[in-house]
Structures are given as structure tokens and as C-alpha cells.
Amino acid sequence: MSSPRRKRAGRPPGTSDTRERILVNARELFARNGIGNTSIRAIAAASDVDSALVHHYFGTKEQLFAAAVHIPIDPLQILGPMREVPLEDLGLTLPSLLLPLWDSEIGAGFIATLRSLLAGDDVSLIRSFLQDVISVEIGSRVDDPPGSGPIRVQFVASQLVGVVLARYILELEPFKSLPVQQIAETIAPNLQRYLTGDLPGLS
Amino acid sequence: MSSPRRKRAGRPPGTSDTRERILVNARELFARNGIGNTSIRAIAAASDVDSALVHHYFGTKEQLFAAAVHIPIDPLQILGPMREVPLEDLGLTLPSLLLPLWDSEIGAGFIATLRSLLAGDDVSLIRSFLQDVISVEIGSRVDDPPGSGPIRVQFVASQLVGVVLARYILELEPFKSLPVQQIAETIAPNLQRYLTGDLPGLS
Fold first, then answer.
1. So where are chain B's domains?
2. Does B157 lie at the interface with A, CB-CB under 8 angstroms?
3. Domain B75-196 coded CATH 1.10.530
4. Probe site for chain A from B98, B133, B161, B181 (most A CB atoms < 10 A)
5. A169 with B127: Cβ contact below 8 A
6. Tell me, what's the pLDDT at A25?
7. Crossing angle of helices A90-103/A75-82, nearest 10°?
8. Which of A201, B47, B92, B200 has its CA at a distance of 20 to 30 angstroms from the CA of residue A110?
9. CA dihedral in degrees (B49, B52, B56, B61; nearest 10)?
10. pLDDT digits 0-9 by tens, B50-66
11. What ipTM score was computed for the predicted complex, to two decimals?
């Protein structure tokens, strides 16, 4: 695989500076305006480069977001397959996909990022990810009655971030050491109820 | 009401220093050894004062813990009444008591403390509170089959801290603005399932 370095013999010096500048601007714009309201073009303009260069370095907007918050995977790699899962299996599929990921090496970086974002004043990156990406991807599938999708998804998010907190940050025992499958199966019916159950105030 | 200040005319100078020294030592010992394994006597000894003075300033060990982590209420004021609630009502009673508290002025201080504890490397104070106080108070009531109590309580904790995160720290909308009663009633059946339901891996 050829790297951008080799391909662009005539590029200006300071490629890694440029990448870093794009990431800094991306983080700032995503935080200020949300993922949905931030375009690759705006990030490119703020970074004084061409949109094509941003795509070349980082791929899609979601991939750029992942790079900006140091998530070492494309969020849509998880969220894409979720589109294919039958609605009534979402409650189990969601934690079954996420927990092994969080438990992995990859997850360690994500947990560290989550923690530093929580520590800072600026949690807008997480909020935007949950509201713009998860709500759009999953919320639209469970929007019954109409308008309930975002609320359903946010209850799901509350349980999932709570698991992250209890298992990886507070490190409660025995919770921290329970098998992934046990946690996934324990929370699955509750997640499923949030997604497709009759919830107070939604009808 | 007479303050300690007025009562102890002959006290050595630097009363507020003494109080602060006790709090610092309490925080350190609670964090290092947990609440259960820390005695008022040990805190008094570390602070070079008499146990009676610690009780005089702060009351019970739980009240001292609350003061040390800036929770402006006695945790047992919440947990005490929970002992009287029928088991099958715990799932609704727990969030119905906690959410108005978190929403209040009092709660703002608690959320700020939680956040700074999460930001620091040392989450052992929260962990100890959940494991030593909540698990003992509530876990013992739902320990069926025997040994399952702490796990049940930790699943409950995962949902409750997730609500705190979503509502007060991430401030997701509309979650942040939902009426307390709607959140309490929405999560109640899920909490109840964690407390008294058939859970995978526990039988």
C-alpha cells in the first residue's frame, strides 16, 4: 500500500503538521456545531487545504470524527451492520458487539478518551456522536410512535455508558470480571424494552 | 442551634484546620481501604485527635464520608428508608428518591464531585461507597440466590450512573429535560428486573 507520503512527491513540507491541523480543526468544529452540522468542506477551509486532501487522509466524515476523538475504528463499521439486524434482536446485538470491542486493546484507547472528555468541560463531542450518529442510525428504526426514537436511544445510551463506567472506570467487582456474554444477556431485555417496548410518556 | 465553635471555648486555636485535617485523612483512608475497613479511630489517630472529636464534628462514619466527598446529605437518610420499602417496589422507589435529589441544588454539588472524581485517577471513593454502603444496605435484601446480591446491585448502579451521565454530564436532549417521573417510571421495571428478576448466570 502506498502512503500519502510517497504518492505526493510535490506536496509542501510538513505533512504531519497538516494532518494534525486538520484534526485540531475537526475536533473544534465537531465540538462547536455537532457532527451533523459540520462539513468536510468547512474543516478543509478552516485548515486551509482542499476537501479532497481531507478525504484522502481520513476518508469519510465519520472516519475523520473517529480519528479526531482517537476511536481507532470507523463507527459505521459497527453501526452499519446494525441496520441489517432485525429490530427484535437489537437489544442483544448491540451489547454483544460493543462489549468485546470495549474489552479489547482498541477499547482501552476509547475508554481513556471517554474519560478525558468527561474530565474536561467539553463533552460536546460525545454528545454530538450520540445525538447525530447513533440517534440517526438506530433511532430512526425505533421511532414508534413517531418522535420517540431519540428518547428510546438515549435510554439505551444511559444503560450502555453506565456499563462502561461500572466496568472500566469504577471497576466494580464482580462487575468488572463478569464474562462479556453474561453482561450482554443481562442487559439485553432491558435495552430491548427501551428500543421497542411500551414506555411511559411516549404514547 | 449551637455550633461547635461556641461550645468549645477552650479549644486549641485552628479548629478549622483540625476539621480540614480530619477530612483530608478521612478521604485518604476511605480511598485506600474502603469505607468498611476504615474506622473513625484510625482517622482520628491519623489526624492526631481523639475519636470523640471526630464524632463531635462529623457524626457517624457515613456522615463523615459524605462530608469528605462533599455530599451535603447523610447517605443513610436515603438508604435508611429504603430498608422499609417492599422489595417489589424498590425498582421505582430508588429512582423516585434519587432523581429529585440529583435535580436539586444539593445534587449540583454531588454531580460536580462525581465529575471531578471521575476525572482524577482515584475513583476508589465512589467504588467504596457503591461496594461498602449500597451493596450492604440493598444487596443484602436481594441476595437470592445467595451471592447474587452484589451483582444485582451493580447492574442497578450501572443504570443509575448512566442516567447521571446522560442527564447531568452529557446533557443529552431530550433526556436532560424529561420529567423526573417519566425517567423514574421508564427505568423502574428494568431496575426491578436487576433486583429481583431471573438473571443469566445467577442460578
1. 4-68, 75-196
2. yes
3. no
4. B161
5. no
6. 93
7. 160
8. B200
9. 90
10. 999 999 999 999 889 88
11. 0.79
